[in-house]
Amino acid sequence: xxxxxxxxxxxxxxxxxxxxxxxxxxxxxxxxxxxxxxxxxxxxxxxxxxxxxxxxxxxxxxxxxxxxxxxxxxxxxxxxxxxxxxxxxxxxxxxxxxxxxxxxxxxxxxxxxxxxxxxxxxxxxxxxxxxxxxxxxxxxxxxxxxxxxxxxxxxxxxxxxxxxxxxxxxxxxxxxxxxxxxxxxxxxxxxxxxxxxxxxxxxxxxxxxxxxxxxxxxxxxxxxxxxxxxxxxxxxxxxxxxxxxxxxxxxxxxxxxxxxxxxxxxxxxxxxxxxxxxxxxxxxxxxxxxxxxxxxxxxxxxxxxxxxxxxxxxxxx
Length: 317
Fold this sequence. Notes:
Layout lengths: L5 E5 L4 H6 L1 H10 L4 E6 L4 H7 L4 E4 L20 E4 L6 H7 L5 E3 L20 H11 L24 E4 L11 H13 L4 E4 L5 H11 L6 E2 L5 H9 L3 E5 L2 H8 L4 E4 L5 H4 L7 E4 L14 H4 L3 H10 L6
Parallel strand pairs: 1-2, 1-4, 2-3, 4-5, 6-7, 6-9, 7-8, 9-10, 10-11
């Protein structure tokens, strides 16, 4: 533990959430250059935090779903500054306020009247939201400051099209048989296709791979370590996925992508406007935590995905 001032940021969420928060983290790094910046987030995201170049230390913190952790394992004097990048409160506000920080930066909430922050807008894009919060407190922030450095290691499948069928909830999972149809069509055109999945998505990845006829060498199930996943995405021809963490990783590496949105509209979580990133969305908005694929997602056809891939710019050499 350093002897200087410390700034604690709470964002105990997933990979996509952390990547969407990178612009805000970098703004805090610039705005508080003399502080140790401590990020309260899941332990497995430590490599992502390090890659951002903004975080000095990760404080392991997590809770099921998108809930607020019950406690933080903070030691020593109270943080000089605490920043709530987790949500609009009040549980996240109370968690940070309980550490008695010198300053607490957070959105206003009627149940935490002592915090005079800006109002929360439910339909605001995630990257814009947190940058607006910081600007309200006088910290300059750029939502476009989201690129990650290229990984040092080689890609395990350079030039491949990466398909990622999983997501944080079934509502955001496009059917595996449609991913398989996309994979077969791409392979017929001479493209290498690989499939990835999280630590708990082995069965889903195996199902897709079997239906697409993929060799074992092109199946990356069970949750790749971040360095290998990052290298895979950075070296890919394109990434096709739902609205989940790997879509944000493609944006961070400027890798071409096709994101299948539903039930959450791209205006809230989609990539920035760029020819390298195509978004398919048929609306309306639905429940992002539903137990079945959302009707908006099911309106996306395999033909649309293949056409979106065809429309992507050719990769630069």
